[in-house]
Amino acid sequence: MEVVPIILQCFNRIEYTMQVLSSFKNHLLYPHEVIVIDNGSTDGTVEYLKMMKELCFIDYLILNSENKGIAEPKNQGLEIVAEITKNKTIKYVVITDNDIAVPFIRDSDAGCVLSKLVQLLDNSPHIGMCGVDLSRDNAPSYQEWWWRLRQHSMSTPTFAEIAIGFWFSIIRYEYFQDFKFIGESSYGKIDESLRNYITLQKKTKIGLLKGVSVFENGKYKETSPRLGVHLGWTEDFGKYPDYVKMKKQERAKAEQAWKEKNRKW
């Protein structure tokens, strides 16, 4: 049996985690197993996750007693994935943040956003990592450049090439035979590390699932957008200013360490 493991990392911000797990339960049809790693949350998240595990919203749950940053929990999730491979076939793994609610997709072949991502990678060996497109409604103004830099492929119209984070991002599992997440600080440059490895070492592309193809008289007409929601994109600045400040400081530490070590990924 083939499944796609979904690695979800949490640290506080319980209202986001609740919406994200709900979007998994309501929007995903393709066989998957949810792996959640909590990083020492103190806002009720731990109790909520235990309940969701009992209700079978979560298949595997790791509760760290302290915040281990954003690199090590992903490695913990990948260790569970390795155990799953003993009994099930895994070609892809999804890594996502606890503030990315996945879009709703249904079509004639009972597809969902996860099945569309799997189909895209199955049919596109030149793509190594693909996340979900995001609504612009709550995007910060300084992010406007990001939309302008997208490269839209004529040969793969549902795909836009652009640098992304862990936005329900599906990745070829074979890449993790050689790659391990290494953090230079608690937060910072972990997504960039994987992106650089995929593009520089594996020579494949990274981008977004723009939506679903619309056909007319048997011919492709257009791509209809299906957008996820980045729940913390601007909200964090008002709700969690200490969290935003900490991430900024830790990212600066990571950038300095990368320069000193001349890291490429």
Walk me through what this model shows.
The chain is an alpha/beta fold. It is 34% helix and 24% strand. It has eight helices and 13 strands. A nine-stranded mixed beta sheet has the order 3-2-1-4-9-6-10-8-7, with helices on both faces. Strand 11 (211-216) and strand 12 form a beta hairpin. It is globular.
CATH superfamily: Spore Coat Polysaccharide Biosynthesis Protein SpsA, Chain A
Ends distance:
33 Å
- Give the helices and strands as they follow along the chain: EHEHEHEEHEHEEEHEEEEHH
Name the CATH architecture.
Alpha-Beta Complex
Q: Please count the beta strands (DSSP E, at least 2 residues each).
A: 13
Gross morphology: globular
The major pleated sheet works out as: 9 strands, mixed
Observed structural traits:
globular; 265 residues; 8 helices; Spore Coat Polysaccharide Biosynthesis Protein SpsA, Chain A; alpha/beta
In short:
By secondary structure, the chain is an alpha/beta fold.
Helices and strands, with pairings:
Blueprint: E1 4-10, H1 14-27, E2 32-39, H2 45-54, E3 60-64, H3 72-84, E4 92-97, E5 100-101, H4 113-123, E6 127-132, H5 144-148, E7 151-152, E8 159-161, E9 169-172, H6 190-201, E10 205-209, E11 211-216, E12 219-225, E13 229-230, H7 235-239, H8 241-261
